[in-house]
Design goal:
GO molecular function: glucan endo-1,3-alpha-glucosidase activity
Largest sheet: 5 strands, mixed
Distance between the termini: 37 Å
CATH topology of one domain: TIM Barrel
Shape: globular
InterPro entries: Glyco_hydro_71 (IPR005197)
Number of strands: 25
Low-confidence stretches: none
Helix content: 10-25%
Strand content: 15-25%
Mean pLDDT: 97
Protein name: Glycoside hydrolase family 71 protein
Number of helices: 12
Structural class: alpha/beta
Length: 599
């Protein structure tokens, strides 16, 4: 986020670059908004600093922050910096990305012709298939922004699978992010995307390592976007403008005193596995993260889990944010955890996830029901202490401004002793040994993923390791019971191993039946109602997935009913009854503008 760096000198850029290099990051994607006054001075500082440290940079033109970029401005920047040795390139071409901007896709025909750049945009609002068709296929590859889980569910790879399928060998840049929480009312942003287990960082790196084929690039979201809480760079008092009354107008600064540096601790290990298929380490380490107040101790700030603005069903955040302490540990062998929290002592002997051969990243969590000051976690192996971490941050029953901070505190500590840690097998020597699928796919994916067959179009692999011995073949040939080809390979594989659930599979081949909606898309609101003056609006908008929980009540869920297209020429819409959470804007722009509610 170059827009956050207005107070930086070249030395500040150098310091941040050195931190990134320490953990194996090759380049910064420089997010730049059109006509931002920081662009000219800070790009000069950034490229000078990168040149002094042998680091790479590339542009990510932000078409949402300050509106679309002018073609000429884009070309001027690429021509100015694209030939620099510090500018990241693919096959000699300057590598360029975007944040959104699909409506300006045609601009890139001329931009590419004039600059010779290699374009991998994020046009996620269109989806992979449509994005690849824009401007007669001007994109050379695609970046996907869907790095977060939906409504507390586990992170999945269905969007990644869609991108890889439609790209058909063209480069794919896969997103990885540890968290998402934003509360910036001036920008109409107040939601979280979360997994119930809050282990998104670990889940997503496993998905990177189990992806087949491996993505060409990984982009971590983000280094310094404090307003969305997914920063992994250091805290910086000069970068908090997003929270100000003249910007996002946040009720409080939810990044201040909330370090995320601990999430960089395991990056060298994960990045080496991605780049080379193997990794080694000489220091064991423990990472912990948690919220600094109990979930129900304060007001929720009207934050939602998911956002109706993206036609998602909204949850109360209390449903998605359990009060727990979370741990990931990079270990050279099995060890136990001892957690001393207030008057309670917890012992973790059975981790939630363990690495292949016992070497790698372990994950666990423990519940908490009370507040505590600073607490302690100890890693113990064969009775001896490996790491003793006195965590300086506690969990309280109060919150800044009386509003719960849904952004976590993250910390880490390394062992003092040196180890020779290396997994017994490379990624190529492993296969999937554990995975899951939704709803009717659950039993099938649990079976097939355990034995190496975990197609990302239907299942999500959650662990790789030494191939397991398959059950004796039954010779049964399975087919989709309802003709849905999504079940085809799964039924064939699973039925032959003795798992052939009748609700999903049949031994009789049926006519192919393509579902109208993807079984992997989460349900959203399909009907709803409001109270008093909001009722007519809610009845209309909830039908199309736009059902903000603080204005409406959703009464049924199912596959999304596509909303009518927006009408040209409808721009300024006003709610006549105060805060409406976007109801009038959504409805009026689609031809339903009831009076006196809206004008």
């Amino acid at each position: 986020q170059v827009g956050n760096t207005g107070g930086w000198s070249q030395a500040d850029w150098t310091s941040e670059i050195q931190l990134a290099q320490l953990v194996g990051i090759d380049a910064f994607a420089l997010n730049i908004a059109a006509n931002d006054s920081n662009n000219t001075p800070q790009l000069a500082n950034a490229f000078a600093a990168a040149g002094s440290k042998g680091f790479q940079l590339f542009f990510s033109f932000d078409y949402a922050g300050h509106g679309p970029w002018a073609q000429g401005d884009v070309m001027a920047l690429i021509k100015q910096y694209g030939s620099a040795g510090t500018y990241f390139k693919r096959n000699g071409k300057p590598f360029v990305s975007t944040f959104e901007g699909p409506d300006n896709a045609a601009d890139w025909v001329n931009i590419k012709a004039q600059t010779g750049c290699f374009l991998i945009p994020d046009w996620s609002s269109y989806g992979a298939a449509a994005a690849l068709q824009l401007a007669n296929g001007v994109a050379d590859g695609l970046f996907n922004w869907a790095a977060w889980a939906w409504g507390g569910g586990a992170m999945n790879t269905y969007v990644d699978a869609s991108y890889m399928q439609f790209l058909n060998g063209k480069p794919y840049m896969m997103p990885v992010s540890p968290w998402f929480y934003t509360n910036l009312p001036q920008y109409d942003k107040n939601w979280m995307w979360s997994t119930m287990t809050l282990d998104l960082w670990e889940q997503r790196w496993i998905e990177v390592l189990t992806a087949s084929p491996q993505p060409d690039y990984i982009e971590i979201i983000s280094w310094n976007d404090f307003g969305e809480s997914h920063y992994i760079g250091p805290l910086d008092d000069t970068q908090y403008e997003a929270f100000g009354a003249d910007r996002g107008n946040s009720p409080y600064n939810y990044a201040k005193d909330m370090p995320h540096d601990g999430w960089r601790e395991l990056l060298p290990y994960y990045i080496d596995l991605y780049k080379t298929g193997t990794a080694s380490f000489t220091k064991e380490s423990i990472v912990t993260w948690f919220r600094t107040s109990l979930a129900g101790a304060c007001a929720d700030g009207e934050t939602t889990g998911n956002t109706a603005s993206q036609l998602e069903y909204e949850y109360n955040p209390l449903e998605l944010m359990p009060d727990r302490l979370y741990f990931s540990a990079l270990l050279a062998g099995y060890a136990e955890l001892k957690i001393t929290y207030g008057l309670n002592t917890y012992s973790v002997k059975n981790w939630d996830s363990t690495p292949d051969g016992g070497v790698g990243v372990y994950h666990a969590s423990v519940p908490i029901a009370t507040t505590s000051g600073p607490w302690r976690v100890t890693v113990i192996r064969n009775g001896a202490t490996v790491i003793d971490y006195a965590v300086p941050q506690g969990v309280s029953g109060s919150c800044p401004g009386g509003v719960t901070n849904w952004n976590p505190w993250v910390g880490s500590k390394q062992s003092s002793a040196t180890v020779n840690g290396k997994p017994p097998r490379t990624i190529a020597q492993q296969e999937c040994i554990e995975g899951w699928g939704p709803d009717n796919f659950a039993t099938l994916c649990n079976t097939t993923c355990s034995y190496g067959y975990c197609p990302s179009s239907a299942c999500v692999c959650t662990n790789k390791g030494l191939a397991r011995t398959k059950p004796k073949s039954t010779g049964v040939v399975g087919y989709p019971a309802n003709g849905d080809p999504n079940y085809g390979g799964l039924c064939n594989f699973a039925c032959n191993l003795g798992t052939c659930p009748a609700y999903a599979c049949s031994t009789t081949q049926r006519d192919v039946s393509i579902p109208k909606t993807s079984p992997f898309n989460p349900d959203t609101c399909t009907s709803g109602q409001g109270s008093g003056i909001t009722n007519r609006l809610c009845t209309y908008t909830c039908r199309y997935g736009f059902c903000p929980m603080h204005s409406c009540q959703c009464t049924s869920r199912g596959p999304l009913n596509l909303p009518p297209p927006e009408i040209d020429g409808v721009s300024k819409v006003t709610s006549n009854f105060g805060k409406d959470n976007g109801l009038c804007n959504f409805a009026c722009k689609r031809g339903f503008c009831p009076s006196p509610e809206c004008s």
